[in-house]
Design a protein that fits this description.
Elements lengths: L17 H11 L6 H6 L13 H7 L12 E6 L2 E6 L2 E3 L14 H7 L58 H14 L3 H8 L3 H4 L6 H12 L10 H4 L5 H21 L11 H10 L3 H18 L4 H5 L9
Helix pairs in contact: 5-6, 5-10, 8-10, 8-11, 8-12, 11-12
The chain binds zinc ion (2 copies).
Length: 320
């Protein structure tokens, strides 16, 4: 194949998203954003780049397609349902990703100068390194950040988003984003140290990224048993703040159960239908065992005389 036509070339960082890489290299080659690529791909606007775009992107910027294997998020259909292969992981609920609603760590943009795959997960609401909340809007114009911005650190209004301020994150959100970061990039030597900070997340150690995300969502999305969010609404467009509340509630509730075994007060706030759906299609045994434990172990403890559950071998599984 002929040499790339663009003068600034690079390979992606090991945790850089395909979208972020393309925006970074477009900017480095003096384009304003990715709109120039819309003409290359014969589309009106670049909303999302997936696996099928990777070979051409790699060629344009002098890299290799295989380097993007775990750096894109691509939608597939399975049994009539949309699922995602996202950054090396199967994600069975696309509403757990925010592919068209970027959020960023402004400290990472300033320090490392690239966009990370991790930020595209809805329930990752803070930076595991800087321990600050991710930002989804511009401090100057208050508009949500967009992939149609001129550069990785530049809002459409022209403001340098690195100059904004960021809030500190809660321990629960930090622990979860660290757990996710370790799942996306294998840093096995630091795993045990970080897991030990969160007894709840140590329970997730064998779960898939998909299973963990779905458990966090199902156990944290409702503010209380009385204050439930309509399913359709909650599955769309959680803001960074709403998602952080979901993570905090989930981890606090799971911690409470782990500590006191008191299911009765807590379990009514869970979205049982979502836990049940994990039983049906969890990606691995640990996902299924965890969801089953929350459903059945809880029922058993609330009503020890529930004879049917006593007879059910599944109810004997010890979760905590
Ligand atoms: Zn950061
Ligand atoms: Zn702006």
């Amino acid at each position: 194949m002929a040499s790339p036509i663009l003068s600034v070339r690079d390979h992606p960082h090991s945790d850089e998203s395909l979208m972020g890489f393309t925006l970074r290299l477009s900017e480095a080659n003096h384009f304003s954003g990715m709109q120039w690529l819309a003409e290359v791909f014969h589309v009106g606007r670049i909303h999302h780049l997936s696996a099928r775009h990777a070979p051409l992107i790699a060629w344009l910027f002098g890299s290799e397609p295989q380097k993007f294997h775990a750096l894109h998020a691509t939608l597939h259909k399975k049994n009539g349902r949309s699922i995602l292969f996202a950054f090396g992981h199967l994600i069975t609920r696309p509403y757990l990703m925010r592919l068209r609603r970027p959020q960023v760590c402004i400290e990472c943009l300033a320090e490392f100068g690239y966009v990370k795959c991790l930020w595209d997960f809805v329930l990752v609401t803070c930076c595991p390194i800087h321990r600050t909340m991710l930002k989804e809007s511009c401090d100057a114009c208050n508009m949500n950040l967009s992939w149609n911005r001129p550069g990785i650190s530049k809002c459409r209004c022209g403001h340098d988003i690195r100059l904004g301020s960021s809030e500190g994150a809660s321990n629960a959100c930090i622990a979860y984003s660290q757990w996710m970061a370790l799942r996306l990039v294998d840093v096995s030597n630091s795993r045990s140290a970080i897991i030990s900070e969160s007894p709840v997340l140590s329970l997730f150690s064998d779960m898939s990224v998909d299973g963990a995300s779905r458990i966090i969502w199902a156990t944290g999305i409702n503010a209380s048993a009385l204050e439930t969010i309509a399913a359709g609404k909650s599955k769309k467009d959680l803001s960074t703040l709403q998602a952080s509340r979901c993570v905090e509630r989930s981890i606090q509730r799971l911690h409470e159960i782990q500590k006191t075994q008191n299911f009765a007060n807590i379990r009514p706030a869970f979205v049982s239908s979502s836990l049940l759906s994990i039983l049906e299609d969890g990606l691995c045994d640990s996902d299924i065992r965890f969801a089953r434990g929350l459903l059945l172990e809880g029922k058993l403890r609330e009503n020890p005389k529930a004879s049917l559950l006593h007879l059910n071998p599944l109810s004997q599984i010890k979760l905590f």
